[in-house]
Every structure is written in structure tokens, then in C-alpha cells.
User: What shape does this take?
Amino acid sequence: MKQENSLRGVIFDMDGVLCDSEPFIAEAACRMFDELYQVKAFPSDFKPFIGTGEDRFIGGVAEKYGVRIDLVAAKARVYALYLEIIRGQLQPLAGAGEFMVACRKRGLKMAVATSADQIKLEGNLAQIRIPPSSFDVIVTGDAIKRKKPDPEVFLVAAAKLGLPAESCLVVEDAENGIMAGRAAGARCLGITTTYEEERLKACGAEWTAPDLAHVPSHIPGVTSDA
Assistant: This one.
């Protein structure tokens, strides 16, 4: 019998959790800056803005280089390049599909909550062959006002699942995402695809794993009944 502190829902971030898309979106953004603004940006420039949504992901780097950009046009070009780059290249991260099946068998509700826009989510899920119908709820960055580390995306996802955030496990790879999950009141599993374990734990991750194939066996209601 599950105890009262058992979790009843899992809210997945997308990039760096279900698939390792970060190198591809950084490549697309670097190409956009070179193509539209003749600025030589580097993938490392984008790391502080991972998990905050593409507006900030692009805009933060534009600020770093002192470039005034047309954000709508820049983001549209980044997404166009990104969808070309990932074709046949983007793969699901180890254990993603199997972990989702296990969650469903346990009767857990599932959501994906990402700061990315709908166009990127649809492109990613198509490439990694996870149908959107696999989730009870989908929340994307273009449906919310405040991006991570603000908790809005996770609060909206939990509400749509019909659960208090406190009964949800947020699965995140980014510091901004872990902070958002904790601010929402959720418990957090940090996936170390982008940041090392110590940094994710410092932000509030209760558990960490290299991927969803190696999730700790003692998460109440998710990987254990205790």
C-alpha cells in the first residue's frame, strides 16, 4: 500500500531528459547569429540560458555580444535550422520510453512541461518516436508567460493533471528547471546530461541519475512503494 508521501504524477522536461537536443539547438542558434548578424557565437555561450526558453536562450547571447536582434525572426530561423539539423539525428535518451511505460503501469499521471515552443516539441517527439498521446498533459513555452526558473510551467502542468505539485516528480536536466520545480513545491529528479550531479543537488534535486535507464530505486510511488 502506498504511503501518503508517495508521488502520483511525473512531469518531464523535454530537452536533456527525453532527448539530448541541447547540442543541436546551440548549433542552430550559432548558425543563425552568423547568418543574420555576422556574429561568431559558441555553444558554451548558451549554457547559462538552458531551460529558460528560446527567447531568453537567444536573447541572452545577443545581449552578451551587444547585438540588437529581431527576436521573432531570429527564433523562427533558429527553429527552421534546428528542425533540419535533427532530422534523422535526434535520438531518445536511454531509458526514456521504458521509464514512461513503467510509470504508466504504476498508474502515474504524466506530463511534459517545456520552456520550448510547440514547434520544437512536436519536432522532437516526432524524431524520437514518442507520440504526444503518451502524455496526459503537454505544456509548452508559448502557452505560459513566465519561463523557468519561475515555477509557472510546472504549476500549470500539475493543475492540468489534477494534482497538487507536491505530489509530482519533476524530471529535469537544467539548474533553472530544478529551481522551477522546487519553487513549484515538487520533488525533483535531476538528469546529469547537461549539469553535473553536485550542481543539480545544490539547486534542489533530491535524486539524480545519468538518464532514465538508471533512475534510483527508492523514489516513493515512482520506483518504490515505500
In short: The CA atoms of residues 133 and 177 lie 23 Å apart. The domain at 9-20+92-214 is CATH 3.40.50.1000 (Rossmann fold). The two ends are 8 Å apart (CA to CA). The longest strand covers residues 109-113.
